[in-house]
Structure formats: C-alpha cells, structure tokens
Amino acid sequence: MLTTVAAILANPRYTGRQVWNRQRTDHDDLRPDGTIARHREIQRWNAAPQWVISRQIAHPPLITEEQSVAAQAIHTAPTPTDGAPRHYLLAGLVCCGVCGRIMDSHWVHGRPGYRCRHGHTSTHTKTSPQPKILYIREDHLLDRIRHDRKLHRHHPALRSPDPEKVTAHLRTHNIIIVCDHHIWTIEAETAVYTLNPAGSFLAATAKIPAQRDGDHAKHEESSRFVWK
To answer: N or C: which end of the chain has fewer CB within 10 A?
Structure first.
C-alpha cells in the first residue's frame, strides 16, 4: 500500500540502522470530578533531533540512505490557494508546554506561526473542558532569542541577525523551544533558559554583574527531557 511505502521511507530504521527514542511515554493527570487524580500513559512522537541512530549497520536495509534523505526533502503539504510557498524556520523545534506535543506550523495573516490544539480536532466531540488553543508567532520567538543576553552567554551564535543561522544552531545542538500561554523557555541538553518577555531587554542589561549572575542561576534548571 502507498501508506506502507511512505512509512518505510520516513523511518530511518529501514536504512539498516537501529533507531531509539522515536517515541516517549507521557503520564497525564486526569481529574474528572476535580478531586481525584488519575494517570494515563500517552505515546507521543519525539522530534527528529532527539532520535538516537546507530553508527553501524544493524540489519539488512530495505532502502538506501540516499533514498531516505531524498524522501524527507519532498514537501507534501497542500499547496496554498495563492500558490506561494510557506516556509517555517522553526518547524519541529517548538513544543507545547501545556500538553507536550510538537506545535503545528500555522500560517496566519501572511506570516508563519505555530499552533497547538492539544489533540482536539473537529471530528471529536468535547467531553471535558479543553485548554485554550496556543498560538505563537515565529518572528516573536526569533526576536526574543536574538535579544536574550543570558542565553547568549552559553550560545553566542543565537544573537545572529540571520534567522537561518539561528535555526541551524538550534538544530545542530538539539535545542528545542517550549511555550505555554505565559512562559517561553529554551531547553538544551543540560539546562533550561527562560526567555525574557518582550520589552524587557533594556532592563536586563542595566543590572550589575552580580545581579546578572543571580538571574543566570535562577533561570537555569535541569531539562525535563532525557538526552542520550
């Protein structure tokens, strides 16, 4: 079947290499009556930079690595009515801090952004109150990253005015962006950095070194993700 062929081309395991960490198990809290907390396990896909791929061939391949790479480069999303291509620099790097899903690329008012409906679709009837839909503009994310001096101490390349270079650094160093309705954070392999709110850049740079060091310690914590 066509869907089987597509799945084979999208899975690097069929190139003969072993792949780990493509999925993770999250434990979500369910509170049906507001007093009892029940836990359920949900399988979610990890972003490609979080996959662990063996260096050596582990089993006979079904496709070549060249075929797999060529398949990933094919854009199969529906063509917009105006025929103009849509480019999302941070696709696959922006995660929802409410439900843990990777946010969908979403084009609104002529600019790229990222949206999460927390698993709700029009084909499912709402059985319980749903979290508010989360929408983040791409230019707002890039602007905060480029102007956050605390983040630049550890990742100076992120201050580049070129969005392509910023995105390349994020992907190369397995860095993701986690957003909810109030806080945006940068999660690297070893630490988490809280991004400054819009308009607070000047206030952050006016502090003396001792205050900035205190902020540095306060905004770094262990990552919630397990890296290999």
So the answer is: N
